[in-house]
Amino acid sequence: MNKRLIIVFVCMAVFVLTLVVGAVVFSINDVDILLASDENVAFDKAKILDTSGIKKGQSVFTIDKDLACSKIEKQFPELKVEIGRAFPNKVRIHLWMRTAIFKVRLNDSDRYAILDRELKIIKIVSGGEAYMKGELIPLENYNLKGSEEMLGDFIKDDNIDLNALRQVIEALEGLGVTNERIPATFESFEFVTNQKLKMKSTLGITLVIKTNANITTKTQCEALYAEFYNMSNDEREKLKFLSYNEYTGKTEVSDKE
Description:
The chain is α/β, with parallel strands linked by helices. It contains seven helices and twelve strands. The protein has helices spanning 3-25, 45-52, 65-75, 160-174, 181-185, 217-230, 233-237; strands at 30-35, 79-86, 90-97, 102-106, 111-115, 121-126, 137-144, 186-192, 196-201, 206-210, 241-245, 250-254. The strands form two sheets. Strands 6-5-4-7-8-9-10-11-12 form a nine-stranded mixed beta sheet. A three-stranded mixed beta sheet has the order 1-3-2, with helices on one face. α2 (45-52) crosses α3 and α4 (160-174) crosses α6 (217-230). The termini are far apart.
């Protein structure tokens, strides 16, 4: 047997051995499902694992993390999911509870879609449910069209009103007003279609954002909230509306809209 043939056989043997060892070493033998949120929430680990499609015994390299996350988040709408590999043979599924912030009427009915900060529908409820009162921000003059099958989906409407809301959320989070602090600060959001977003605070002052202005909604929200936040109690009691003048670049206060 010549040397070249020996080298070929050796290379093949090393290749096969590598595959065998890799299949054993990187074969998933443990999947940890961890609740990262502070809430004491019960969840079915076996059902979450089954929904993910991740199987013990498969290679850690063959996991489609994005697909597994989307499957779990669709089946369990109130969860936000991240999946990571812990080499050589473990997978960790991290879970966070999403925070309910908004409620929007569904199909002009007495049903409401409950939304988190990413405008994901995390629950669909009747208007009479107890926790609906005062704990969530109603999106007034906006009616969501769809069916119960939308549960677990993100609202993808690409219109002026929804894009303005997305910018408001981004602006508030940049100012440290996140999750529970949003409904603690604002009583309602009202859309004036393609024109304005009126954000009524729990102190009775309405921040009026012009969604059809040349200045972005995010810029207006940042300026208005900063003005609102820095006001004294006496100043707040003297006004009802706070708006942004796109021509002067200044906030304006008044007792009229």
